[in-house]
Amino acid sequence: VQLQASGGGLVQAGGSLRLSCAASGRTFSSNVMGWFRQAPGKEREFVASIGRSPGAQYYSDSVKGRFTIFRDNAKNMVYLQMNSLKPEDTAVYYCHRPPSHWGQGTQVTVSS
């Protein structure tokens, strides 16, 4: 399984970004997918996940209401729409397929 994340960049506070993750493999639609992030000097933390069932999205309290995770099974893609970005959202964002598959990370920097 390979995961390729993209879409990071520099944005002002209050702005939006959409992260994309392309996944290889024929069983994508049956897999839970997630996003994590790691800020400088901090541990990697959970951001959001999406299951197989409609409505099976979960978010950390810090992003709930601002971020949306969704997937396109036909394209083997998972996305993270990030709105109302804050400087504390600055981190490297990683696509994740449990239990142990990680993408290479994409940098998100939010300026104040």
SSE topology sketch:
Blueprint: E1 3-6, E2 9-12, E3 17-23, E4 33-38, E5 45-50, E6 57-59, E7 67-72, E8 77-82, E9 91-97, E10 101-102, E11 106-111
Fold and architecture overview:
By secondary structure, this protein is an all-beta fold. It has no helices and eleven strands. It has strands at 3-6, 9-12, 17-23, 33-38, 45-50, 57-59, 67-72, 77-82, 91-97, 101-102, 106-111. The strands form two sheets. Strands 2, 4, 5, 6, 9, 10 and 11 form a seven-stranded mixed β-sheet that branches. β9 (91-97) and β10 form a beta hairpin. The mean pLDDT is 95.
Order of helices and strands: EEEEEEEEEEE
Which structural class do the helices and strands define?
mainly beta
The low-confidence runs, each spanning 5 or more residues with pLDDT under 50, are none
Number of helices: 0
- Could you tell me the strand content as a percent range? over 45%
Q: Bin the helical content.
A: under 10%
What is the molecular shape?
Answer: globular
| Major sheet size, sense and barrel closure | 7 strands, mixed
Radius of gyration: 13 Å
- Give the CA-CA distance, first to last residue: 37 Å
Q: Could you tell me the mean pLDDT?
A: 95
Overall number of strands: 11
Can I get a quick summary?
By secondary structure, this protein is an all-beta fold.
List keywords for this structure.
single chain; 112 residues; mainly beta; seven-stranded mixed sheet; four-stranded antiparallel sheet; 11 strands; 0% helix; globular
